[in-house]
Amino acid sequence: MVCFVRSPRETAPVRTSCLFDKRWLYTLSFFIFGLWALIFEAKPVFAQELDLSEIAQDRPFSQVEDDKASLEASEGMEEQESPLKTKPTAQTEMRVSFTEAEREKHLAERALEQARQHRVTSKGLLLQQSQAHQYTYRNLSEVAGDRMTLQDSTPSVNNSGAVVAAQSMSSQKIPLPWERGTDITNNGDIMHRSKMLGSMFGARNLLDHFGITFGLLDIEEVWGNPSGGTPSQAQGSPAWGGNGRGGGGQGASYDAVTLLSMQVDLRKTLGPKMGLFNISGMQIRGRSISQDHLSVFNPISGQEADRSFRLFELWYQQPFFHNVMDVRIGEMDLDNEFLISAYGGLYLNADFGWPLIPSADLYSGGPSWPLASPGIRFRFRPSERFTFMFAASDDNPPGNQNSAFAIQNGGNTADPTNQNYGNSASGTRFNTNTGVLLMEELQYSVTFGKHHGGLPGVYKLGGYYDTADYPSFYKNAIGEPLGNPHDSADVNTPAWVRSNWAVYGIMDQMIWRSRSNPYQSVGVFFRGMGTQGDRNLVTFAADAGINLKAPFHNRPNDTLGLGWGIGVAGDGARHFDRETGTIQQTAEDHMELTYQAMVTPWLNIQPDFQYIFRPSGGVQDYAYNTLKRVGDEAILGVHADIRF
């Protein structure tokens, strides 16, 4: 076993806090250049003083025209008649009762007229809170923004994380008065309301009057591997800390997460220039089949984590310049906004959410579910096409440096995300002594109206830079190859090297849309990421897939998908394997076939099949003393999202 704890003789690495370090200057230069390049897109928005606080339809002009065309085709209206002036039918009175409120009609008609006159293109979307008579207008989440750009062809639920799943369920397309859809009043029958508990006898409506929205999302999963795998570590070889009883590599597990959140729109109580306050917590239960039996680079489910009840996010977001820019500060989870693939969010394997490289290489995987860190995030959306984001946060969410890496102390197989091992399980302990994680992302959206004939897409480029020190795979504390036999006590103590970085690119592109079925479409995605090899376990990772939305005519909200991913072990990790005489890790491939079915607007069920080739790049099976690799694995599972 290799122990990565500094000896008393070792000198702690020097940590400079100089703000004029050249790496900080490079990051600052990139940030300023991005703002300068995008400012030209913002000119039309800044030049017009629009009262967006009272606009009920902050939507791209192309979508306004699409809604008008859809209305005229279905209702036979005259060209000059406003879509929101139609009288609701008996069917829509139950689903969309806001047309009875004259004030809401007036605001909506005014917004439509302003959109025609000013060509409003700021990336926004009408989001209903919890009742039909009250609307709040805010900046879109990244999931909702991608859904709008890709014209509702994305999965009904994005499985990148519990918060992202809740955002995607709450940002489903809102039915307009002339459309069939979900009962957004939450007062109809249980099979059509957007939340299972409905309006809760008017309590949700009352709270929404003061801008308060409560959310409760429950995620349930059952997994099993009928082939491949390895016995749990407790039953493995005594050389690896087991009891020597052996056992099969197959097993089953249950894991679940309950996310409770509260968001307060302060504009309803303190004035139109205020922002949003958000707090959330989670209760995590069950076991991780990945840690018990699979020995994979990343969990086969993004919901796997150690059992705890913990604070998750606590932040305040303030918009500026009519929501063109906003700033978020507090404890936050960066994978709610960065590194997201709209189509890739269909899949359950954790690699399709927060990618493999930051999960395997950063301190305990970085500020990603279920770990959040204090930080600040800037987002600039000058137009419907461009978005620029920059974030700076604590790079060590759990707060303990010595249990942060799989290579240290042999890893911690009982705690998939190291959130509890040697740390606080409450989510309130932070270690600001390791470093700062800086992330930037530039997004470009290709948007067309549905009647234009073009196919939309979203493209993203970004990267991160961590100022912390990382253990080297090549050298030990006395400058010799790490793991090479030596009489010195420092032979297995790694040298520490300064900083870490990675770059990435993401593509989400619709490639086909049915002419006969407006809900049916095919989308593809690709995400690639790379980093340096001397200090990182994984140096290259990629994932890709193809999704079919509405595979059956009577199932418009279902999605069928086939995905693939790969993670390649770095040169340093292979060098370390050679020096220690263990099997050298190469690359892990995984494939996933999944079907997401919307049973009701508040319930989604997703059966899933995965196959793992060379788990962890062909890692040694700790159940045996011989050099035997963990075998390929087939995994079956069922996932459910329930929105209360």
Explain this structure to me?
There is one protein chain. This protein is α+β, with helices and mostly antiparallel strands. The protein has a single domain, classed as Carbohydrate-selective porin OprB (Porin, Beta Barrel). Helices cover 18% and strands 32% of the residues. It is built from 11 helices and 18 strands. It has a 16-stranded antiparallel barrel with strand order 3-4-5-6-7-8-9-10-11-12-13-14-15-16-17-18, surrounded by 4 helices. Strands 1-2 form a two-stranded antiparallel ribbon. The model is unreliable at 1-27, 35-102, 115-138, 174-184, 234-245 and 406-418 (pLDDT under 50).
Which descriptors would you attach to this protein?
single chain, 644 residues, alpha+beta, Porin, 16-stranded antiparallel beta barrel, two-stranded antiparallel ribbon, 11 helices, disordered N terminus
List the helices and strands and how they pair.
Layout: H1 22-47, H2 61-75, H3 90-95, H4 102-118, E1 127-128, E2 135-136, H5 142-149, H6 162-170, H7 203-209, E3 212-229, E4 252-265, H8 267-270, E5 276-286, H9 289-294, E6 308-320, E7 325-332, H10 356-361, E8 373-380, E9 386-394, E10 436-446, E11 457-476, E12 494-513, E13 521-531, E14 538-549, E15 559-569, H11 571-580, E16 587-600, E17 603-613, E18 631-643
Order of helices and strands: HHHHEEHHHEEHEHEEHEEEEEEEEHEEE
- What is the average of the pLDDT values? 74
Q: What name is given to the CATH topology?
A: Porin
Task: Using the alpha-carbon principal axes, give the shape.
Answer: globular
CATH fourth-tier homologous superfamily: Carbohydrate-selective porin OprB
How many helical elements?
11
Q: Could you give the order of strands across the largest sheet?
A: 3-4-5-6-7-8-9-10-11-12-13-14-15-16-17-18
Binned strand content: 25-35%
Q: Distance between the terminal alpha carbons, to the nearest Å? A: 47 Å
